[in-house]
Write a structure and sequence with these properties.
Elements lengths: L1 E5 L2 E5 L4 E3 L4 E2 L3 E5 L5 E7 L4 E4 L6 H18 L10 E7 L9 H17 L5 H9 L5 H4 L4 E6 L8 E7 L7 E6 L9 H6 L7 H21 L3 H21 L9 H17 L3 E4 L6 E5 L1 H12 L5 E6 L5 E2 L1
Parallel strand pairs: 7-8
Antiparallel strand pairs: 1-6, 1-15, 2-5, 3-4, 5-9, 6-8, 9-10, 11-13, 11-14, 12-13
Helix pairs in contact: 2-3, 6-7
The structure holds ligand DP6.
The site of ligand DP6 has 17 residues, from helix 2 and helix 5.
């Protein structure tokens, strides 16, 4: 049995929409920071038949199908390197991520699964190749393979490995904190997979892809490499709100943000201006607000977060990516 430990990542330039649904080839490039927790352990082994179990989730037919499909795609990808039979493996997921709090547990689960499979099959695979395997289960999982800051790059083809993860800088490069404020723990109505499929119906979608290609992705990478917090703040907030604009204008419309989210954004902007603090906000497919900040702003942001009535608060920082345990 091989076990891999993995954590979520939070996007700075968001992945929204696919150019190939089955292969989860991303429409646009993206960047993120990998968190140091909470973690998921994924164990795999050869077995009599395909099986998947989880300590937090009832594995219904639909969830099982997603794992089975992912394994089939991983096998198809690995067939370009070696002939490996993955049809009879057992997958055991031990998650320490509270469900539906706006932390991408699927990113941690599928990056962990891919790293564990890479260990099981005993053929030398690079992190880039493992990121392709992770992406076949969940697009954003391609980034959790790497520690620190990572990105997904697109090639101009529709091959199964046409979108790949890569590391911008490791976890020692720049420590940022993520203070996570969870306004509501209700299950989100429409998951990302379904949302991605309708992204192109938004009239803002093509402009979004163009902006990411022309300047946003590179601005974000440069800001990370130069540890330029102000630049990162500008580009990450711009991209986050632009993704939500696309979500809100696609058919059917997806409005993941709540009144609390908007109130927190306004208050954070005020605090940033009046107290000159290095902090910015970003939200994924839910009302959860991630407050990214430099160490000097961490205590103030934690105090602010704990003042929010009815909200749960979590804390994380730059993490080291997926590894075998
Ligand atoms: C809004 O990776 O969750 O968090 O491939 O269907 O699992 P699937 O989608 P997923 O999409 C992530 C969407 C996002 C933005 C991001 O993390 O880049």
């Amino acid at each position: 049995m091989i076990t891999a430990r993995s954590t979520p990542n939070i996007a700075l330039i968001k992945y929204w929409g696919n150019r190939h649904e089955e292969f989860r080839l991303c429409a646009g490039e993206s960047t993120s920071m990998t968190l140091d927790g909470p973690y998921v352990d994924v164990s795999v082994d050869y077995a009599d038949r395909f099986n998947v179990s989880s300590n937090t989730k009832e594995m219904n037919a639909e969830s099982k199908k997603r794992f089975q499909k992912t394994i089939e795609l991983i096998q198809a990808y690995l067939a370009t390197i070696d002939n490996i039979d993955l049809s009879r493996i057992s997958i055991d997921i031990e998650s320490h991520i509270p469900p539906s709090i706006g932390l991408a547990s699927s990113a941690a689960v599928f990056s962990g699964l891919s790293k564990a499979i890479a260990g099981l099959v005993e053929i030398p695979l690079s992190d880039e190749q493992i990121s392709v395997m992770a992406r076949l289960g969940s697009g954003s999982a391609a980034r959790s393979i790497f520690g620190g800051y990572s990105a997904i790059a697109n090639e101009e083809n529709m091959f199964i490995d046409g979108s790949k993860g890569w590391q911008i800088a490791d976890e020692h490069h720049w420590t940022l904190h993520d203070i996570i404020i969870v306004p509501s723990t209700k299950e989100k109505k429409v998951g990302s997979t379904e949302g991605h499929a309708n992204a192109a119906t938004s009239r803002h979608f093509l402009q979004r892809l163009q902006d990411i290609k022309e300047y946003r992705q590179q601005d974000c990478i440069n800001a990370i490499l130069r540890k330029d917090f102000e630049k990162l703040q500008r580009v990450a907030e711009e991209d986050c709100m632009n993704m939500h604009l696309c979500m809100q204008t696609q058919t059917p419309a997806l409005d993941y943000l709540s009144d609390d989210t908007y109130r927190i954004i306004t208050e954070i902007k005020d605090i940033r201006r009046s107290e000159h603090l290095p902090v910015f906000y970003t939200m994924d497919a839910g009302p959860t607000v991630h407050l990214f900040c430099e160490p000097e702003a961490k205590d103030r942001m934690l105090t602010y977060a704990h003042e929010q009535e009815g909200c749960q608060v979590f804390e994380a920082q730059t993490g080291k990516g997926t590894y075998l345990v």
